[in-house]
Design goal:
- The chain is an alpha+beta fold.
- It is 49% helix and 20% strand.
- The strands form six sheets. Strands 16-28-27-26-17-24-25 form a seven-stranded mixed sheet, sandwiched between helices. It has a six-stranded antiparallel sheet with strand order 8-7-9-15-10-13, with no helix packed on it. A six-stranded antiparallel sheet has the order 18-23-22-21-20-19.
- α6 runs parallel beside α24.
- 44% of the residues are buried.
Length: 708
């Protein structure tokens, strides 16, 4: 019987730990699939419960030196005396510095002789080695049992080698520095994961649910669609829903990244995890907590952080050969000078140990995933969702942007501005015919016409034989007459004669034209406008300043409207009157051979073009399942200023990835070279050449949290 289980793993120091667990667990009989994300610490496993139990799986993970966390994560203070690893490291440090004090600042007399002269500093070094190496040795032995080789094994070999050549102080220093560095690395990695936990903690654990005439505190997971919850001033909203009573200002920064609260009243949508800043509101739950927009955001972020970018896959392949190569070099350095050229054993054995310690690939393995994860979580906190690290890398290479017009560069809320009658029809008749047909359509322009008819109290007639002509318009029978509503292409050319001046005037004003009438006789023309977003022009200017080579607008609207809108926002290149399949062709055309084009649309009618582009970016995805599904990147609100931020984040993330790779390889290569003239000591190899580089890589990646 195939079952699935999700576990949270504690103690993942780098991506090499992930590979070790995946390799070991995949070899077990009964395991059908395993996926472990370093950035999240979340492991999903598929297994045959008839062949292996959940307890056996967890036991095997613990035998590798890792802990299983409860699903409810409790953050602990790593640098607390309650943490035994920190306590042991502290004792080791005190003992080490006491030994060094005795060695260098006081006479270091012989205490007693057993095989060798035991100096007064010796017992201090012994304590430092025992306490500093206790947990290191424990992990190394567990890895040995599972037939894996880990950095802890390298450190134990290094310390034992130092002891073997009587370098007790350096052996103690290696284990103390490594134990402290492990704690610092744990702290840094956990700090990088904290952003995701902050998202998880946004949803309150309980909410006041209406039961009869009273409100009762109820666990969030027990709330169902249709339940009414009370949200007081200052409280977080527990579920996605609609306000049914009261009004307030709601801070939606956690979902959309908007800096200013929005006024909300009856009928307005609110999201789980947002804050009711003033007043009491009652919210009707639209869905369960596990299906909320925030839950989807968390799921997408976790999934994105587990996916590997091309650079990360390259680094993994490089590290696979890098470590064995350096270990092979260390063996050669220990063997060839000593056995063939009869050089000093202590000198060349020491150099070999140094190379072993430097060979650890932790910093290199951390260089990419920690940077990508920081970029993804930074985006999530600012209302931007990436479907995977690969799209950060793709975005950084984009040099062309294509924008849909309606709902992207414009607000997507069309308003009827002109109703012009012809051929003896009245204004009311035109609006009645148009709204009667558009009642049966879901087109945004049709909704604007219906809303205008409702505002003016115009009656709606019954429609028979309703037909939709894709991309052109609709038609139906009203009072035994066939009427049509749509673009000019829907009508006979003769029927449009005499309308040229009116149509040209409306198009010059960037208004969309809806023609109403019969096939050979126009009853009237309706002009509809869609307001251009206030920051559209500023966004275009920002992209140009950031080096974007080409900016294009693509729209299904007519040529003159497209030209007018493009001129207002500063876009020189545009394509008009495009059906969805033509938008796809345009994306392929402007992408060229490299295809480095980002398409920005509303995530619904632009789905084919978004899927075709190098990177598809959907706007206004909050609460929209379709937008979250379609796009590679989703902007949770309609703020166009997020587009330059997005491009900046992509470029800075990949810049830091490259910095980290160069740092991790460059410093290790430098240390490997300096081993031969004798400029590197054991403590330097550990403190700087290994764990120091790892910490530097992590701290460099954490800078991405400051990108705005």
């Amino acid at each position: 019987m195939i079952e699935e289980k999700e576990l949270r793993i504690k103690g993942l120091h780098c991506a090499d730990c992930v590979k070790k667990i995946e390799r070991t667990m995949s070899s077990l009989h009964g395991i059908h699939g395993i996926k472990l994300g370093f950035s999240t610490g979340k492991m999903g496993v598929r297994y045959d419960s008839d062949k292996i139990s959940s307890e056996e799986i967890q036991s095997k993970i613990k035998s590798l030196g890792y802990d299983i966390l409860e699903k409810e994560f409790k953050e602990e203070n790593i640098f607390s005396l309650k943490n035994h690893e920190f306590l042991f490291a502290l004792v080791s440090g005190i003992a080490l510095f006491s030994g060094l004090f005795v060695s260098f600042l006081t006479p270091d007399p012989v205490v007693f002789t057993i095989y060798h002269h035991i100096l007064l500093s010796g017992p201090f070094y012994a304590v430092a080695i025992i306490f500093g190496g206790y947990y290191v040795a424990q992990r190394a032995i567990k890895a040995l049992y599972s037939r894996t080789f880990v950095i802890d094994s390298l450190m134990i070999i290094g310390a034992l080698g130092a002891i073997f050549i009587d370098a007790f102080a350096e052996g103690a220093a290696v284990l103390f520095l490594f134990s402290i560095a492990e704690l610092l690395e744990d702290y840094s990695v956990e700090r990088s994961r904290r952003s995701l936990r902050e998202l998880v903690n946004l949803t309150p654990k309980v909410a006041s649910v209406k039961k009869g005439d009273r409100f009762t505190e109820t666990p969030i997971e027990e709330i169902r669609a249709g339940d009414i919850i009370l949200v007081k001033s200052g409280e977080r909203i527990g579920v996605d829903g609609v306000i049914v009573k009261g009004e307030s200002s709601v801070n939606q920064a956690s979902i959309t990244g908007e800096s200013m609260p929005l006024n909300k009243g009856i009928g307005d949508i609110v999201f789980a995890g947002t804050i009711n800043q003033e007043g009491r509101i009652e919210v009707k739950a639209a869905k369960e907590a596990k299906d909320s927009t925030l839950a989807k955001i968390i799921e997408l972020v976790e999934s994105a952080e587990e996916q590997k970018s091309p650079t990360e896959r390259f680094v993994d392949r490089f590290a696979k050969y890098y470590t064995p190569f350096v270990v092979g070099m260390a063996v050669c350095i220990a063997a060839i000078p000593i056995l063939i050229f009869h050089k000093s054993f202590d000198v060349w054995f020491y150099k070999a140990i140094l190379l072993l310690l430097i060979s650890c690939p932790c910093a290199l393995a951390l260089s990419t995933p920690i940077s990508i994860a920081s970029g993804i979580t930074s985006g999530a906190k600012n209302g931007v969702l990436f479907k995977g690290g690969v799209f950060i890398e793709k975005l950084a290479k984009v040099d062309t942007f294509a924008f849909d017009k309606t709902g992207t560069l414009t607000e997507g809320k069309p308003l009827v501005t002109d109703i012009i009658p012809f051929n003896s029809y009245s204004r009311e008749e035109i609006l009645s015919i148009a709204s009667s047909l558009e009642c049966l359509s879901a087109h945004p322009l049709g909704k604007a016409i219906v809303e205008r008819a409702e505002q003016e109290g115009v009656s709606v007639e019954c429609v028979d034989d309703f037909i939709v002509t894709s991309g052109k318009g609709i038609q139906g029978r009203i009072n035994n007459e066939i009427y049509m509503v749509g673009s000019k292409e829907l009508f006979d050319t003769k029927a449009l004669s005499g309308l040229d001046e009116t149509l040209s005037k409306l198009e010059d004003e960037a208004k969309t034209i809806v023609v109403v009438g019969r096939e050979n006789k126009v009853a009237g023309v309706i002009g509809i406008t869609d307001k251009i977003r206030d920051n559209s022009r500023y966004m275009i200017e920002c992209l140009r300043q950031m080096g974007v080579r080409r900016i294009v607008m693509i729209t299904g609207d007519n040529e003159r409207v497209a030209k007018a809108v493009a001129a207002k926002i500063g876009i020189d290149e545009y394509y008009a009157e495009l059906l969805p399949d033509k938008k796809v062709s345009i994306i392929k055309e402007i992408g060229g051979k490299d295809g480095r084009v980002a398409m920005v649309g509303d995530g619904v009618n632009d789905a084919p073009a978004l899927a075709t582009a190098h990177v598809g970016i959907a706007m206004g995805a909050a609460g929209s399942d379709i937008a979250l599904e379609v796009a590679n990147i989703a902007l949770m609100n309609d703020d166009l200023s997020k587009i330059p931020y997005l491009l900046s984040l992509g470029k800075k993330t990949m810049g830091i990835v490259k910095q980290n790779i160069v740092l991790s390889i460059g410093i290790k290569l430098l240390f490997a070279i300096l081993v031969f003239p004798g400029f590197v000591t054991l403590w330097m190899a550990v403190a700087i050449g290994d764990m120091g580089v790892s910490l530097l890589v992590i701290l460099n990646a954490l800078r991405l949290s400051n990108v705005r």
